[in-house]
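Hi C.,

You asked whether I'd gotten around to modeling the 166-residue construct. I have! Everything is below, sequence then structure, no commentary in between.
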Amino acid sequence: MAALAQEMIFWAVAAMMGIASIGVVTSRNVVHAALYLVGTLMGAAALYILLLAEFVAWVQVLVYVGAIVVLMLFGLMLTRAPIGKANFDNDQRLLSALTALAVFGVTSYIMVRAFEGQTIDLSRETGTLTASIGEVIFSTYVLPFEVVSVLLLAALVGAVVIARRD
């Protein structure tokens, strides 16, 4: 019964993420697109919680939802970009839809073939997983972790420089 409930929650979250991701790419208002992106990223965090990866879910919320989306909104405000309705449309909708469908098909085929017949063990302890992830991030991957933080800082400083040019 628990597996059925978990599967139903997965499909509900996946449908919400699909609708929000379509909203990201079809919205004509940049702020609305950023808010749809928040919905998509929160759905990814919910999927991490379903997989008992609470640490990764909180990192998703704090880093991506909390930092990246706020950085995007600050960049929009500081650069005086057109926030209202803008026309970003062109004549390549069919080609882009076919390309997206092809990428989705190839990715789905590869994922199904790679993980065919495997199950996820959801009966493990989660405390030791969080400790091991922390050790790996701050020992093996400390340089990429710091490079990402410097990149975000550079983007924010660049937005301020562009805004102050006038």
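If it helps when you're writing up: The chain has six helices and no strands.

Thanks,
B.
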